[in-house]
TrEMBL record:
This is Oxidoreductase. It comes from Streptomyces sviceus (strain ATCC 29083 / DSM 924 / JCM 4929 / NBRC 13980 / NCIMB 11184 / NRRL 5439 / UC 5370). CDD domains: AKR_unchar (cd19098). Residues 76-332 form the NADP-dependent oxidoreductase domain. InterPro entries: AKR2_Oxidoreductase, NAD(P)_OxRdtase_dom_sf, NADP_OxRdtase_dom. It comes from the Bacteria.
């Protein structure tokens, strides 16, 4: 068993309720009783639910055989490894190829693992038809009809195992922030027991988060979770995520590895140096930097192999000193620069 997390990972208590802040307003209450630090790390299946994705090093990770059954097997191996090492949150989406299907199969085969928390997302439609060279791999639409269709598709696969349903990649101009009919649909799902959240993307994540915090139905906040990109290179959403945390939302962090830019052999020199000092992988240090944020409830691993996953999970016990943090802080890029570079990553 891994040792207990360093003190900076102990969640603050909300004075008004006396329970851990990462539990408030979300289905992650089942994680509150977990005793291992890896409960703060989740597994996202974007990299293994479809044959093409924008992560660097994907050719080496997956190899040539990316058939449905090969990726199904790989996904199940990852889920088994994650569960046995204390991970309890699993993240999928309608646009992640067959990720919902693969996860549903695994849940059906492991009915006793009822302590896991499942989150999915709607708003993008997967259009690559299981190829890596499609002109478009996914199409975005935050309209009510897309929600109705994709909610039914998700329900058919995950049924009552779905805990959290998120709007995928909200931006400040997203109609999902102003569509009252959509809000009513989402509120209805919340009343039936599904937690409603949203994810963000792009250089204006902070603006999208603050706009979403203002969305209410019958004077009650609609969203209970937010999932955003935050890593050593892109920190601009940090203040808004802290505000969301203080408002009672659970913060889930995605792309902590910057789509492979923070993993060897692509990691910048400063990150490599700190990792060498600690005799750890660059990935563990990069994820530890995110985990230490007081507002971070769950940080996603996007591992494509069980070896990567094991290395990622070491992040839960990494304690960075002030000098190391100062060196890593110099890696931050301007948001526009970061997202432009991300947009240029090829689909492997």
């Amino acid at each position: 068993m891994l040792p207990h997390p360093p003190k900076h990972r102990t969640p603050r208590l909300l004075r008004r309720k006396g329970i851990p802040s990462y539990v408030v307003g979300m289905p992650f209450a089942r994680l509150a009783s977990a005793t291992t630090p890896t409960c703060h790390i989740g597994l996202g299946l974007a990299a293994v639910g479809r044959p093409g994705y924008i992560n660097l090093g994907r050719d080496e990770d997956l190899g040539a055989d990316r058939s449905v059954e090969r990726l199904r097997t790989r996904t199940h191996e990852l889920l088994d490894a994650a569960y046995f090492q204390g991970v309890r949150y699993f993240d999928v989406a309608r646009s992640y190829g067959r990720s919902e299907e693969f996860l549903a199969d695994w849940l059906d085969k492991n009915p006793s693992r009822d302590d896991v928390v499942v989150g999915s997302k709607w708003g993008y439609t997967y259009t690559a038809d299981w190829t890596t060279d499609a002109e478009k791999h996914e199409v975005k639409d935050h309209g009510v009809r897309t929600y109705d269709r994709q909610r039914a598709e998700t329900a058919e696969l995950l049924g009552d195992r779905l805990d959290l349903y998120q709007i995928h990649s909200v931006t400040p101009d997203s109609p999902a922030l102003t569509d009252k009919e959509l809000h009513a649909r989402l509120a209805e799902a919340a009343a039936q027991g599904t937690t409603i959240g949203f994810s963000t993307s792009g250089p204006a994540q902070a603006d999208a988060i603050r706009a979403a915090l203002a969305v209410t139905v019958d004077a009650e906040p609609l969203f209970r979770t937010v999932q955003s990109t935050y890593n050593a290179l892109e920190t601009s959403a940090g203040p808004a995520l802290a505000e969301a945390h203080d408002a009672g939302l659970t913060v889930i962090v995605k792309e902590g590895m910057a789509n492979g830019r923070l993993a060897a052999p692509h990691a910048p020199d400063a990150l490599r140096a700190v990792a060498e000092e600690m005799s750890l992988g660059c990935d563990a240090v990069a994820l530890a930097l995110v985990l230490r944020q007081p507002w971070a409830g769950v940080v996603l691993s996007g591992a494509a192999t069980t070896v990567q996953l094991a290395s990622n999970l070491h992040a839960a016990v990494v304690d960075l000193d002030d000098a190391q943090l100062s060196r890593l802080a110099e890696l931050v890029e301007e948001p526009q620069e970061y997202w432009e570079r991300r947009g240029q990553l090829p689909w492997h």
